Amino acid sequence: MEQNKHKGRWKLFAVVLVCAAPIILSYFTYYVIKPESRTNYGAFIDPRAHPIPVLGASTLDGKAMELDAYKGKWIMLQVNDAECQAACQKILHDMRQLRLAQGKEMERVERVWLITDAKPVDTALMREFDGTNMLRARADAVRAWLPVEEGTTASDHIYMIDPLGNLMMRFPKDADPNKIKKDLYKLLKASAIG
After folding, report:
1. Which pTM value belongs to this model?
2. 67 and 137 co-located in one domain
3. I need a labelling partner for 178 at 20 to 30 A (CA). Which of 68, 92, 97, 157 fits?
4. Residue 190: pLDDT above 60?
5. Are residues 28 and 64 in the same domain?
């Protein structure tokens, strides 16, 4: 009889251990091993410290329009002058493709090019990047708002603004579009807003 009690206790202990093992293993993996998938490619920016400011922005035809007109959607932001050389055009192209790559979620994303001078934008460029919202903004206000990596300027980066109107992520200079795509997918999947 005593031997059966002893066997029964071991069986109960084995069942409890089998049930608890996945939980113990998941905690061990998350807190001790720290899988790489927890990190983002883009640099996280504290959203509370960078709400959209008044930039003195306007459409290309001169109508006043600030970035907060796009609140409620995720905004991929590029900053450059109107000439938009090869690096600028690559970023605009990448932004277009990244939005398209989101499939049915792409309507949650807006693309904005902040133009920081008063020069005219080439018509061919406007046609090529049709669907990109082009706004002129004061260069000094843009510089004061957007944080940059050391040795870079705001025009080297793609920025993400959340649907509440807060700057929250910056991608590195010469960013890999495939890695940005993964971050954007995660943001859209995790967010119920926008």
Report:
1. 0.79
2. yes
3. 68
4. yes
5. no
Decide: helix, strand or coil at residue 22. helix
Q: Contact at 8 Å (CB) between 130 and 145? A: no
Quick one: 6 and 22 in the same domain? Answer: yes
- Answer whether residue 115 shows pLDDT above 80: yes
Same-domain pairing of 79 and 98? yes
pLDDT in tens, 47-95: 888 999 999 999 999 999 999 999 999 999 999 999 999 999 999 999 9
Strand spans (E) along the chain: 43-44, 58-59, 74-80, 109-115, 133-136, 159-161, 167-170
From CA 79, how far away is CA 155, in angstroms rounded? 5
Range of the domain at 6: 2-38
pLDDT digits (tens, 9 = 90+) for 17-52: 778 777 776 666 666 665 555 568 999 999 888 999
- Output the CA torsion sign for 25, 31, 36, 39: positive
The verdict on 79 and 160 lying in the same domain is yes
Are 183 and 102 a contacting pair, CB within 8 Å? Answer: no
Question: Do both 93 and 126 map to the same domain?
Answer: yes
Note whether 124 and 143 are same-domain residues: yes
Residues in the chain: 194
